[in-house]
Fold:
Amino acid sequence: MIRRKRLKNLFMLYSACAVLAAGFTSHAASIQPEVKIVDTKNEKESDQQSTVMQTVSTSLAETAAESVEAQQQKIAEDIERKEQEAKEKAEREAAMRQNQALLAAIIYCEAGNQPYEGQIAVGAVIMNRVKSSAYPNTIEGVIYQSGQFGPAATGWLDQVRNSGSYTQSCMQAAVDALNGVNPIGGCLYFDQGGCGTKIGAHYFH
Structure:
């Protein structure tokens, strides 16, 4: 009787253990896929984050490269613009010096022995002609126009111009005439006889 009861207890204990074991196995089996799903999701999120970071890094690198390129382009354009401005300024200054020297030379040839006002007046006649539609629109064109100025025709003007043998007074008169100083109004001619505004030995009309 006791032995049978002991066997019954053992059987019940065995059954209970079996049920518990089955329960644990079933529970483990039920949560295992969930663990895998969670792991897969984390991996996907990690991959997505990595992709986003790579995209952001690439975008920032491209933006930085574009910014550097734009700055370099601007610097190059600024340098080119300044060089062009310097070149144009140098050309203007060279042209101005040439005009001053040419005007000083013709003033010297035509009025080197005249008072300073008379020298400016000769320069003013030439500037009036440059502005007039009846004459060439450059100082050189006016001075070398055929039949207008004797020193240009004889070659004396070129000798004075090339040697720079005009006086400082004639150079200053040329500068003043170029800057608009004009004691004879709209006169287009001068000579040593006739009528008009007399300055020194010349009449301006």
